Amino acid sequence: MRFGTPRTILAALVLAAAAVLVQPAFLRQDTMPPGFRADVLVVGGSPAGVAAALAAARQGMVVVLVESRPFLGTVMTGAMLNMVDVSRGLNGENLIEGIFLEIYREIGGITFDPRRVRIILRNKVEAEPGIVSMLGIEHTEPIVVNGRVAGASVRLVDQAMVPIHAAVTVDATDDGDMAAASGVPFTYGRETSGLDRRAMPATLIYRLTGVDWPEIVRHAHAHRRGRQPSGAFNGYAWGFREAMRGYHPAEGRLSAHDLNIGRLPDGTVLINSLQIHDMDGTDPSSRADGYARAVQEIPNKVSYLRANVPGFAGAQLVEVAPELYIRETRHLAGLYTLTGKDILDRSRFWDRIGASSYPIDLHQYVKGERYPYRPARREYTIPLRSLITARIDGLFVASRAFSATYQAAGSARVIPTTMAMGEGVGVAAAVAVARGVTPHQLAQRQDLVQEVQQRLLRVGARIDY
């Protein structure tokens, strides 16, 4: 359900509460407008935020989902990242199931149309009776009481600031905005390396028409062996490093990664390749500057593709994504910090809520740097403690900004893994509400963590490899 005024939002919450059989005492008179209550508040309509909201609602919670954009999906839709980096086990099986796999099948698999995904995600959220979605919210600020997040105040379309009081809050913003504003400590980019505070480069994805897809696939298959292989599978093609060696952006803070090409049903393709260095993804002015630099360079990139890469001779630029694909910003402090060693050791945590195997994929922080990790898959698990913020209670995190070193985040930042985080914390939030505990208290109770794990398994999620 989507609503935009205090009156209609309250009515929606009452209907949601009735639909999931919440006790009438839940909506108390002293929290009626200008304030109201929910069991779980999810801030951020990212893929992980959608998973968290669905998971909590399916556990019987009244959920409010808040997003600043007028649509859901963030990187999948706003940044138009239409290629899913799946995690596979040793036998090729999906390591991430549950809500991720449900949505993965609906959107069409590894590649998808971002415009269609906006509709799919909206429909899934609106079809869940326990969720009230509030989109296009221009400002959200946390409510912190005695070191505990107790919800958030949001600015509605009529300019009124309305508090949403929640037993548990989930920060599902891609950059950990809610947690940072609440006072949760964080590092930025590779700050802990001691080298600098750079983050991985961002990318501006763009769409081309007039490509010869069969020729692209033929070239990819012909170069599938060697030190820098190419490949193609189910509408996704990657590699082409040799063909791209001669491309040099005119602007010194831009570079070119290998081509990642995602085909759309209408025959056009989305290109993920142009990288933007020295940009702060948490700073609107820095994002705007990076976006402008990339927009100016894209016509040169397209001209190069037409002249040098098989299958692109007739390519024409159709559009650029409305926002940047940002890989890295904050790394929040949690009750546990996932490390690169944890991944290399294939760690199985006692409080695991999901599994992954995506390689540690660190793009060049500075042009010309060597990639420090081989693109090897190693199965590992995600500990619930890394999704619970340090210092500030009342808050779960489902985001690439979760508690991890920059090396570990290089693996866990991808959409399927963050969606596993979202489902895990959605269920954990439901257990916390049902048992009357905070996230910090939940993490200290092995019996309650086991209840979270059992509930996840019952709804089809996978928490181990």
Task: Describe, in plain words, how this protein is organized in 3D.
With 465 residues, the protein is an alpha+beta fold. It folds into two domains: 1-198 and 330-465, FAD/NAD(P)-binding domain (3-Layer(bba) Sandwich), CATH 3.50.50.60; 202-320. Helices cover 31% and strands 21% of the residues. The protein is built from 13 helices and 18 strands. Strand 1 (36-43), helix 2 and strand 2 form a beta-alpha-beta unit. Helix 2 packs parallel to helix 11 and helix 11 packs across helix 13 (446-458).
Which characteristics define this entry?
single chain; 465 residues; alpha+beta; FAD/NAD(P)-binding domain; seven-stranded mixed sheet; seven-stranded antiparallel sheet; 13 helices; globular
CATH superfamily of the largest domain: FAD/NAD(P)-binding domain
Percent helix range = 25-40%
Q: So what's the overall shape?
A: globular
CATH topology of the largest domain: FAD/NAD(P)-binding domain
TL;DR of this structure?
With 465 residues, this protein is an alpha+beta fold. 31% of the residues lie in helices and 21% in strands. The protein has 13 helices and 18 strands.
Give the secondary structure arrangement, pairings included:
Elements: H1 6-19, E1 36-43, H2 47-58, E2 63-67, H3 98-107, H4 114-127, E3 131-135, E4 139-145, E5 148-155, E6 161-171, H5 177-182, E7 186-188, E8 202-203, E9 206-209, H6 213-222, E10 231-233, E11 236-239, H7 241-244, E12 254-263, E13 269-276, H8 284-308, E14 316-320, E15 330-332, H9 340-344, E16 352-356, E17 380-383, E18 395-397, H10 406-412, H11 415-435, H12 439-443, H13 446-458
Parallel strand pairs: 1-2, 1-6, 2-3, 6-18
Antiparallel strand pairs: 4-5, 5-6, 7-15, 8-13, 9-13, 9-14, 10-11, 11-12, 12-13, 16-17
Helix pairs in contact: 2-11, 11-13
